[in-house]
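Justification of resources, computational component.

The compute hours requested in this renewal are based largely on the per-chain cost of generating structure records like the one below. Each record pairs the submitted sequence with a full structure-token output. That output is archived, and it is also reused by downstream analysis tasks.
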Amino acid sequence: MPESSVAAPPVDETVRGLARDCTAWPFQEARTLLDDRLKGQVPDKGYVLFETGYGPSGLPHIGTFGEVVRTTMVRRAFQVLAPEIPTRLFAFSDDMDGLRKVPDNIPNKEIVAAHLGKPLTRIPDPFGTHESFGHHNNARLRSFLDSFGFEYEFQSATECYTSGRFDEALLAVLRHYDAIRDVVLPTLGDERRATYSPFLPVCPKTGQVLQVPVLETDPDAGTIVYQDTDGTRVETPVTGGRCKLQWKADWGTRWHALGVDYEMSGKDLIDSVRLSSRICRVLGSEPPVNLTYELFLDDKGQKISKSKGNGLAVEDWLKYANAESLALFMYQKPRAAKKLHFDVIPRNVDDYLTFLGKFETQETKDRLNNPVWHIHNGTPPREAAHLSFGILLNLASVCHSEDPAVLWHYIGRYAPGATPATAPILDGLVRHAIAYYRDFVLPTKQYRPATAAEAKALEALRAALAEAPPDAAAEDLQTLVYEIGKEHGETFGDLKGWFKALYQILLGQDQGPRMGSFIALYGRSETLALLDRAIAGEDLSA
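The structure output for this chain reads:
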């Protein structure tokens, strides 16, 4: 067994049995892998290989996170179903690709521009920190994945090609040259079809990855003859890093060479998966189990594009919410297109807190279907002091403060014993909520004064609140607010209109929290003072 292969920790047989019937999608994927592909057996290589791919011409992004976290969830589910079978996860970098254009987001573009067409690992690093541009971006990938605690093994295409690791597979491609061309050619236009070869020679003079006609193949010698850009004929071995493969042939050959058992990919790669799978079979291997996930959409329902700049970066999400809420976003319905923009963050935070709160009281079979089981590998954290993200946003709003200590003054009174040290999840969310409030809520707040009729309803609410028992619970306070709204139905039409008026007058927004919970958190005397100011017609934005 390779040292880097990972056997799962012992699994309770009851949990293992329940996992067989679990409907959570990672368990469904794991069962397909175990039953359909592996037939319940350990592969000949001694482990099950999960893979994620990365194009290092750009920096890691939210799609990178999504693919690795989802694959990790399937791997963990597999380890519950078959703890006796070791697993590995490769994060594979296609760093031998020839760079076609200079990225917009790098310094010293002229350094890179002088080396276009070369493999990324042969282009000087414009940042001046690593031996090549490819090495720099690979380091960024590893740092990115390490920051989330992912368990993986980094793999470099350059290393695989130049070390001889892919040599046997490359010779197999050469032996099946015509069959592989027959797979690909029908998908190409007439001009491209005339010159297509699965092999891209690496020019010994310029170091560039060439897209040139291949004139002859010699499987016995392990060589090809190609027509160089100056018209000369050049013979070169296909091994030892002297050639690399075109994309679809490269992917299918990599699956064959490494023995990849599972890899997911985006909807935009459906055709590539199909063709690469056929190439993998031509080479004599079964392609991996594949999950096709949907792509992200912006707030207008348009496909997110890095060139359009209409996406949401990982660092953007982590500025306003915890990584676990992002993992939940990735967990939910991977085959469904989802809008990815700033407005979805609060909902995902609160959904995460809801799932976390349910976990402790659930039966084992329900825990396996709870997203936090998959986010935290079966052992989610325990923390009693949970407040919704929406409540925290509204607390920041009414306090007019960006100081976490100010919010903690109210939180400590609402949840005695809760402190930043004893409630680290909540402490992180306090800081995230302040940042989100500052950047998204505050600029849109518009307080409005109460009408004369609304002011009378506020007076009634104030009087009822002042007479309520000092120890009234949040639910009792919510009922009190309901009753006042019903009594003044002629003013607001219905309870929805009553609550909307409270939010607009007291919080400067159209939507808000459960008022009973908000009053309990903000404090009885503070809420009475807020109502007094609203009844008096004061400007609550100050």
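The radius of gyration is 29 Å. The mean pLDDT is 93.
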